[in-house]
């Protein structure tokens, strides 16, 4: 295991926060089952506790542990995960039971993404627990695209994993609502509604 993974594992399992590169923007995350860790993300982010944050998981099996994937979600996961797509899904009974009480989900739904960046993937696999994750910036500030920008925001507040050769692309993930049969766009990124509709049109 590389040094950064050993450090990341230690930091996260101690209930602390971590900044790490993804294929979109730099992420700020913590273990989603630990109350103080999740609360700390909101504090560092300067984000109200009643504003939901998304999850990052290592693979589709982990997504099934905390959410309910309908036929459209399964098809879209096969096509776009790992990748820059966040799906808002109905939260499962297991998800409600196991996630921290500070994980605020929107009613009965929660946003989930599986990142494709090798560093983010390695961290998620070594932790093997869902992370609450958000862009690495204080609320109202632009998302950080490099470790230098993260340090400018959060110097000395947490471990910052340096970027690899696979740098962030600078566009936040596409967010879609898949809680019903009618899939709708919440925030468009590099994945367009046209490409989403193309994947699921045969389900309509």
Question: If you had to describe this structure to a student in words, what would you say it looks like?
Answer:
- With 204 residues, the protein is of the alpha/beta class.
- It has one domain: Alpha-Beta Complex (DHBP synthase).
- Helices cover 35% and strands 18% of the residues.
- It has eight helices and nine strands.
- Strands 7-1-2-6-3-5-4-8-9 form a nine-stranded mixed β-sheet, with helices on both faces.
- Strand 8 and strand 9 form a beta hairpin.
- Helix 1 packs across helix 6.
- It starts with a helix and ends with a helix.
- The model has no long low-confidence stretch (mean pLDDT 93).
What structural keywords apply?
204 residues; alpha/beta; DHBP synthase; nine-stranded mixed sheet; 8 helices; 9 strands; 35% helix; globular
Write a brief structural summary.
This protein has 204 residues and is α/β, with parallel strands linked by helices. The chain has helices at residues 3-13, 35-45, 60-66, 71-80, 93-98, 118-127, 147-154, 193-200, and strands spanning 18-20, 27-31, 54-56, 85-90, 109-113, 131-135, 159-160, 174-177, 184-187.
């Amino acid at each position: 295991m590389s040094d950064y993974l050993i450090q990341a594992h230690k930091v996260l399992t101690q209930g602390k926060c971590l900044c790490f590169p993804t294929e979109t923007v730099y992420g700020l995350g913590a273990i989603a089952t630990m109350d103080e860790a999740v609360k700390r993300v909101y504090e560092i982010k300067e984000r109200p506790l009643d504003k939901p944050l998304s999850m990052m998981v290592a693979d589709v099996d982990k997504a099934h542990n905390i959410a309910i994937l309908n036929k459209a979600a399964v098809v879209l996961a096969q096509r776009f995960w790992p990748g820059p797509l966040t799906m808002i899904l109905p939260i499962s009974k297991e998800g409600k039971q196991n996630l921290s009480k500070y994980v605020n989900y929107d009613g009965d739904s929660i946003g989930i993404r599986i990142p494709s960046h090798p560093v983010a993937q390695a961290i998620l696999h070594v932790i093997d627990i869902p992370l609450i994750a958000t862009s690495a910036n204080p609320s109202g500030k632009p998302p950080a695209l490099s470790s230098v920008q993260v340090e400018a925001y959060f110097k000395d507040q947490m471990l910052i994993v340096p970027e690899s050769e696979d740098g962030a692309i600078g566009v936040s993930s596409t967010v879609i609502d898949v809680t019903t049969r009618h899939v709708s766009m919440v925030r468009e990124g590099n994945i367009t509604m046209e490409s989403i509709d193309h994947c699921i049109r045969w389900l309509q």
